[in-house]
Specification:
The chain is mostly helical and 154 residues long. It has one domain (23-51, 64-153). It is built from 4 helices and 4 strands; from the N terminus they run ααββββαα. The longest helix has 40 residues, at 10-49. It is elongated and about 85 Å long.
């Protein structure tokens, strides 16, 4: 019986080896760039809803918009890399809402949640869901292009 042992070309084997060593770095770069695209979309949609169509004059200080950012790349318990787009905490004491709650209890996440989903007497002004939908293709395309560029450099 005849046997055959196909072998990959040496240069391809070296490239695969380098890719294995560089996978984490390449994934981090792609996720960071994709996160930037999504962050721009969220910022754009947020600026369209903050202070718009309010019954009383808006008291927006701009702190919510300024606190928007992309987290560093993290690896979860399953070994998956990810980034998060969200709001830094805590809010500053100067811009805290006055009233029954102390400034420590009012968070950027709480304000974003009220904007997104509304509350009694305040209609929702979604910005996260539309931003995600609007930027999904661009984010994916950016991450794919970064992956291709980095792999081609190997």
């Amino acid at each position: 019986m005849a046997t055959m042992k196909p072998k990959l070309p040496e240069d391809l084997m070296k490239k695969i080896d380098r890719l294995g060593k560089e996978t984490d770095r390449i994934c981090e770069k792609a996720l960071t760039e994709g996160g930037k695209v999504m962050e721009k979309s969220v910022a754009s949609h947020l600026s369209q809803v903050v202070g718009k169509d309010t019954v009383v004059e808006s008291r927006s200080t701009g702190e919510l918009q300024a606190s928007l950012g992309v987290s560093p790349v993290r690896v979860d318990k399953n070994g998956n890399h990810d980034v998060k787009i969200g709001f830094r905490e805590p809010r500053s004491q100067q811009t805290a809402a006055k009233g029954k709650r102390s400034y420590r209890q009012i968070t950027n996440a709480m304000i974003a949640n009220v904007l997104e989903y509304g509350r009694k007497g305040q209609a929702p002004k979604p910005f996260l869901a539309p931003a995600k939908k609007a930027a999904k293709k661009d984010t994916t395309a950016k991450m794919e292009s970064v992956l291709r560029e980095e792999i081609d450099k190997l």
